[in-house]
Amino acid sequence: MKLLEDRILRDGEIYPGDILKVDSFVNHQIDVPFMCELAKEYHRLFSDRKVTKILTIEASGIGIACLTAQVFGVPVLFAKKSRTLNQSSDVYSSTVFSYTHKTENHVTVSKQYLLPTDRVLIIDDFLATGNALFGLTDLCKQAGSEVVGIGTVIEKTYQGGGNKLRELGYDVQSLAMIKSMTDDGKIEFC
Amino acid sequence: MKLLEDRILRDGEIYPGDILKVDSFVNHQIDVPFMCELAKEYHRLFSDRKVTKILTIEASGIGIACLTAQVFGVPVLFAKKSRTLNQSSDVYSSTVFSYTHKTENHVTVSKQYLLPTDRVLIIDDFLATGNALFGLTDLCKQAGSEVVGIGTVIEKTYQGGGNKLRELGYDVQSLAMIKSMTDDGKIEFC
Questions:
Q1: Can you tell me the ipTM of this complex?
Q2: Are A24 and B113 a contacting pair at CB < 8 A?
Q3: Which of A29, A33, A59 lies at the smallest CB-CB distance from B59?
């Protein structure tokens, strides 16, 4: 999506260690009118899937998930992160390794809100190794819900998570796909 | 707001220890079409304030903040929580005691995104003791931004936070104001 690529080139900040910060419009400050354009693009891509629910993970996925849900007219469910494993019988739980923070998190959703009848569109801000998304698809599998699509804002294709998910049969649509990124600030899109 | 009061009476769950769970539409699953009605109500209440930014706190404030920001056509900034104090010179930082989790959190926003020229509308889901909101107003004070209003979804008036904020001169508008709540499930609104 050219609009997004241009914005990343203009406002993204690259830090050593393969870090792309988009805190001015995605991850800390959220440029809501801009993100609404991305939400409409997800609707264009997935409008034929009979989506009943949007699933995301706290915290930075919630904004884009809610704006997308508004276009679809469906609820959002956000998985909660915790350091400790919640083995309550009321939740589905999966384990996610955070690439950014180098910590293991457990993600949970209440069984009450993720149903076998749900047709789930998963939305998240970043896709790199795909760990968060594997956790979310695992929660859907446990619930018996069907994942009808995955939409992410920025994918770093060279980290391989997106292709692993595609090989498993998921329809992953990332609005900007970064092929390479150098510490001196050069970004190349696919 | 009658729409919200009715929904709380229908779907809110009360647990011992003065806990009101609204996980089915506010805090875990977000009923986005419903929350959009609340967002419009905030716009009706605060549309004359020349709002330039909406400030909230991760994680459960982000959804309603983004939906409200869409009506206003402004960005959202969400304060980040951390267990450890971030004393970096790039952020404003304040300390917040969480009533729900009985822990002390530090909340931060990047100095880059909260400006002396900002006219800030603070949006959050719950108002009880007001600790989170005091933290957010403190961040605005540090930045020299003007808080032009505070909108919360559910206020427990008997916990006093709302009135403390009003006494300090803040225009606090809560869409449902709970006067009393009993363990056996009775909720009385103001």
A1: 0.95
A2: yes
A3: A59
